[in-house]
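Training component of the fellowship. As part of building independent skills, the fellow (R.M.) carried out the full modelling exercise for a liganded target. The chosen ligand was iron/sulfur cluster. The inputs are recorded below so that the supervisory panel can assess the work.
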Amino acid sequence: MHYEGMIIRPPSEANSIILQVSVGCSYNKCSFCGAYKDIPFRLKDESEIDRDIAFAKRYCTGQKRVFLADGDALILPQASLENIFNKIRANLPWVNRISLYANARAVRSKTNGNLLVLKKIGLDRIYFGLESGADEVLAAVRKGETSRSQETAARRLVDAGLFLSTTVLLGIAGADGSLRHARCTAELLNRIEPDQIAALSVIPLANTDLGRMVNEGCFAIPSAETITRELRELISCITIDRVQFMANHASNYLPLSGRLQKDKQKMIDIIDAAVAGALAFVPESQRAL
Ligand code: SF4
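Fellow's submitted model of the complex:
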């Protein structure tokens, strides 16, 4: 397979065929994100994608899922996406799930009809970076969106019948804004009703504006205990049912996963035990993005 730059994919796509259809992120301004900082965004040539599909046809017959990289593959023109999906279906008929990352801008580039067509020809799952439900936090991290615009975009994915996995970022509001960030984010998630919620904890990367702010003393990352209390507040305030909740990403201080509302009390009990000192947090040296 032909890859450019660092390939990033959700943990649940670990066994997927990673088909890179674009390089970088077309937005690339979030203050905490260092994934594609030095890579100008571009769509990959059709001939490169064709070669990778031909490779997968020959060597990836045991992998039943495809993940389209990079950071916001839904931003590709509709005709290009339909072309790629149709080629995947024709050449890799054993594939039963196609997923990609999308941000709100990419969703706005598609009509509801476009989304329905993509679902019909194979798009199954979208990973959507929500980060926060608090407008001041979204502004501070330069997400380029408001809670309302995030809600509108994410709801359109749900209404199109796509499986929606949302990512939220713990610790990004600092210690003072921590609990409000958790409550606003839970309220936004309750309105969106995603299928899956993945919580990550912020790590200030050296190549990001957030990393520079931390180095210059302009922003302090909250302690493990504060971030864990934030996680507790988030889980407590989520009221939607039958949503998969995962905080088992390597960036987190306390690995957790379960289904809300069924496992809510169990997860809160684990958090309370950790905050009381009965369970150890993941050491800083073992955290990673
Ligand atoms: S967080 Fe997502 S939208 Fe923001 S710069 Fe990174 S890849 Fe792009």
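The panel noted the following from the submitted structure. The mean pLDDT is 96. Residues 25, 27-28, 30, 33, 35, 71-72, 103, 129 surround iron/sulfur cluster (CB under 6 Å).
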